[in-house]
From TrEMBL:
PANTHER family: CUPIN TYPE-1 DOMAIN-CONTAINING PROTEIN, DYNACTIN-ASSOCIATED PROTEIN. It comes from the Eukaryota. It comes from Nothoprocta ornata. Residues 107-239 form the Cupin type-1 domain. GO terms for cellular component: Golgi apparatus; plasma membrane. Gene3D superfamilies: Jelly Rolls (2.60.120.10). This is GL25 protein.
Amino acid sequence: LFLLFFSTHEELKTLDVDDVFFSTPEDIAARALKPQGGVNFIRTFKKQTEDQAVNLPPNLPELVQNASYMQSPDHLVWRYFYDLKGSAEYPFPGGVFQWARYRINGTGLNETEKIFSESLNKHENTLTLATLRIFSNGLGQPHFHFNANEMGYVISGCGKVGVVASDITANFNIDIGDVIFFPVGSQHYIKSVCDEDLLLILAYSTGSQLETLRMNDYFHKTADHILAQLFFKEQNEFKKIPIP
């Protein structure tokens, strides 16, 4: 069972091998493949009534024999593969992140992580992926991303989500199997409300290093006298907010 993400905001267009084959004239396919029997061999192929990408043939063991794959060298594998579950954990108050992403500064990455990071940066429309675990009653605090749309899929647990965009504010509940979407620049938060941890897999539409600003950061990086004017509070009141 795979969970797939595709970096397109348009309708996804896909061509399967069998669809392309049966859309190719018989004589063209015969000249391209040069099989024994020529066109007559090509005519022995029968188009299935059901999509074989979804419905596996009942006699699959008879059709496929000696299926084996050699492991490619690391410099090739890690351009396309990343052990996210086995990667470093990045804790925050209330939970933990694990990341498969590009990093401008590769200091601290092992060799295979560097290969993956550099590979992502070579593709303009690639994705950053992450797993987010929020402990029971924990909070992924309000934040927004400067350079990415974000999608998430709930693997386990349940939670509450809030989104603040330029024209709307929305709050809703999420549960196993739900998908959430946060447009670039929209502030959002996620809170775990079940007895078990809330676990999500997240995808960000950026091949560059993900840029994020959290609420506690922008409060502390805004001068106290500006906050006092904005919120009609005494300037020294904002010293009550601890530095993260």
